[in-house]
UniProtKB/TrEMBL annotation:
The keyword Glycosyltransferase does not apply. Pfam families: Sigma70_r4_2. Belongs to the sigma-70 factor family. ECF subfamily. Gene3D superfamilies: Winged helix-like DNA-binding domain superfamily/Winged helix DNA-binding domain. This is RNA polymerase sigma factor 70 region 4 type 2 domain-containing protein. It comes from Streptomyces rectiviolaceus. The keyword Lipid metabolism does not apply. Keywords: DNA-binding, Sigma factor, Transcription, Transcription regulation.
Length: 203
């Protein structure tokens, strides 16, 4: 279903919002469009490509809106749809998701690394001297599992709160917090830092 291109019903819906689409669709669009664009831009490294991809994603959601809203977790469905489309676009380009050669990805990871480094400096003090250039953390970030990477980029690089990250990904806040803790534990393990089980920067 998600691999099929949207038909012109969605395009008509976006041209004639008041006559075709319910207010709930536009509320969803307003709430998540910018977040989807920022994430797609991180992955694709091209603002125009990210803009086109996100617009096409919302067109497709407009086409299937009634079916999707009847199924339950709209946020999780839409987030999965966006990520599938990003992955498909990268595959067409012969690249993998979060490709290291993508400049936007590099900027996002480096943006995330500094606040993570600050957190690690406070927790580990003498242990983090070898991380001062951020290279080890940068490489470890790039190897995180997909959900952990998403949480770290959304929160540390894009500055999303736990609540907004949960809304965008269609999961509960507890899942975001546990995923963030797991990501930080993995980063610490990869960087050979001794981290306590309950270490996290709770909001």
């Amino acid at each position: 279903m998600t691999g099929q291109p949207p038909d012109d019903r969605g395009e008509r819906a976006l041209r004639e919002p008041s006559e075709v689409m319910p207010p709930a669709f536009w509320a969803f669009h307003q709430l998540y469009h910018q977040a989807y664009f920022e994430y797609a831009h991180v992955q694709l490294g091209d603002k125009d490509a990210a803009d086109r991809l996100v617009d096409a994603t919302f067109v497709f959601l407009a086409v299937i809106w009634q079916r999707v809203t009847a199924q339950g977790n709209l946020e999780a469905f839409a987030w999965t749809l966006l990520k599938e489309r990003v992955a498909s676009e990268l595959e067409v380009q012969g690249r993998e998701a979060a490709a290291l050669e993508t400049l936007a990805f590099e900027r996002a990871v480096r943006a995330a690394c500094e606040p993570i480094l600050d957190s690690f400096r406070q927790e580990f003090r003498a242990q983090v001297t070898e991380l001062e250039d951020g290279l080890g953390l940068y490489q470890a970030m790039a190897q995180l599992p997909e959900r952990q990477f998403d949480v770290m980029v959304l929160q540390f690089a894009l500055g999303f709160t736990t609540k907004r990250t949960a809304l965008v990904m269609g999961v509960c806040q507890a899942t975001v917090r546990s995923t963030r803790r797991a990501a930080k534990r993995k980063l610490a393990t990869d960087l050979e830092l001794a981290i306590a089980e309950d270490v996290d920067d709770e909001e």
